[in-house]
Specification:
Layout lengths: L4 E3 L11 E7 L6 H10 L4 E7 L1 H10 L4 H7 L2 E3 L18 E6 L1 H9 L5 H11 L4 E5 L6 H12 L3 E2 L13 H14 L3 E3 L21
Parallel strand pairs: 2-3, 2-5, 3-4, 5-6, 6-7
Antiparallel strand pairs: 1-8
Helix pairs in contact: 4-5, 4-6
């Protein structure tokens, strides 16, 4: 069941319909980030527009037991990765922005260069030119200079590079909990807040005492 989602910062003209969020899933390892994101937003006030690359479909088969049609069913709207005339390829199609989860270094390079060979990179390029939030969960390690330069280029254009790094202060007890926490923090960047998850300072986590630390 999806958590309740609240979106803030919407203009008056968007209240008559759901706020749209473009979700891209590339072929990087970590496809569960994109799948779980769609699950969290399913049935919420956020309308999801999904584009999966062909490599993402292959990764889905390697890393999960999900079928492509099952993942597509989680989204409100779906687009083929080669449909360059899709709604999300135009800046006049109003959205809250776009998140790519996970984002491969190939997709990162296309976005950084502006050479948009798929609908995913085209939609990301549109998001940047319209000055809307673009969040890339870049999934790669270690990184060479080319990767870092591409990250810098996207950052300078207004995008946010948000590698899926787990937060251990929440004391996660499973991989699923780490995935969820990464995604709720990414959604915060769009003004989309999910209820029911621990946050720093919410719930008053006990401050460690000096005696708690080992020598």
């Amino acid at each position: 069941m999806a958590r309740r989602a609240k979106a803030s910062g919407l203009t008056a003209g968007t209240h008559s319909r759901k706020a749209r969020l473009v979700v891209g899933i590339s072929g990087a390892s970590g496809v569960i980030y994109g799948v779980r994101l769609l699950e969290l937003l399913k049935g919420s006030m956020i309308e999801t527009h999904l584009v999966m690359t062909r490599n993402a479909e292959l990764t889905l088969a390697y890393e999960t037991d999900r079928k492509v049609k099952q993942v597509r069913a989680l989204a409100d709207c779906n687009y083929d990765s080669d449909d360059m005339a899709a709604d999300i390829s135009s800046g006049s199609f109003l959205t809250l922005g776009m998140i790519v989860a996970p984002c491969s270094v190939k997709a990162l390079a296309e976005i950084a260069s502006g050479v948009t060979g798929t609908l995913l990179s085209r939609a990301a390029d549109v998001t940047l030119k319209e000055r809307r939030p673009l969040v890339l969960l870049v999934r790669e390690t270690p990184l060479h200079a080319g990767h870092l330069k591409n990250m810098l280029a996207v950052t300078e254009m207004g995008g946010v590079i948000a590698p899926p790094v787990p937060a251990f202060y929440a004391r996660p007890t499973s991989v699923a909990a780490m995935v969820d926490y990464t995604l709720i923090r990414a959604l915060d960047l769009f003004g989309i807040h999910l209820d029911g998850y621990p946050r720093w300072g919410n719930g008053g986590r006990r401050r460690p005492r000096a005696s708690d630390a080992s020598n």
